[in-house]
Amino acid sequence: MSDFRLLMISAMYENGGNVTHRFLDGHPEMLVYPFESQVGTSLVHDPLTTMFPVKYRWPVFDLAATPEQDFQAIIDEECRVRIRTPHVSKFRDAPMDLSDADRETAYVSRVRASGRSAGSNVMAFFGSTFDAWKDHRRGPTASVYVGYSPIIGVDTARILRDLPDAHVLHVVRNPWAAYADTKKRPKPMSLANYMTAWTTVQYHALLSREQHPTQVHVLRAEDTMADSARTLGALCRDLGLQANDSLRTMSWNAQPLPEAYPWGTIRRATPDANLATARELTPADRDEVALRAAHYLDAFDYQQFRRQLG
What we know:
It is built from 14 helices and seven strands. The protein has helices spanning 17-24, 67-73, 77-84, 100-114, 118-132, 156-162, 175-182, 191-211, 221-226, 228-238, 271-278, 283-292, 294-297, 303-309, and strands at residues 5-11, 30-32, 144-148, 167-172, 216-220, 251-252, 255-256. The longest helix has 21 residues, at 191-211.
């Protein structure tokens, strides 16, 4: 596994995970998964499954399954909808020459060569996607696979157990703007439920960083919005990669994107837009968010942002 390099991005919903993912997309040393890499399976069962969908979790595989069954068990909803039924995908206008059948063939070949385990299955999942993606614009030195699955950082211990050389990047956004964007969903979470999940994700991120300080990285979405090249350039150097001008621009398959949508809900990834979004909340909601996030406002240096809200 030492020659397989994975950076897994995690972020609570509407916390800038997709924005970060898109800023990394064009980096010539990275193989960035095209959509959310929803590697979870239906066999994930633990206390957190009542809070977070299993598609966003680190996978659990049936001990008696075949590689073909393992491939089909990985939920990977966004990518599979796009390549199997593109007419119903929100990414239907994104050109992509990728066959799921070709991907399965490559996946099975990789697992038969490596042996079957959770770590090997995940390596094969990422590797086979780029084996089969015919029109992917990759740099000549691309070697680091980059995935993004919301909240998967709660499984950091399992990720590093199965892939000891992996890195996890956790992205946090101020809870006011995050909740304000969540309220725009067709079926939004209640403030209480959202903040319970938000604080749970932050707890795991900070704990994991204490336990694995060289492999767990925590970035604020606000810092990426203010200067993506500087913020993500520092991350790249920590990973042994070059900072690159591509970090200034969000993209998909190295093609510039004017906004993260439909990859994510943040349409304008700027400090002013971020503050304006937070100010959409009523004063009562702002106060309740602050109360429920209180123990994390200092940890992520959000007291000044709170004062800006007015």
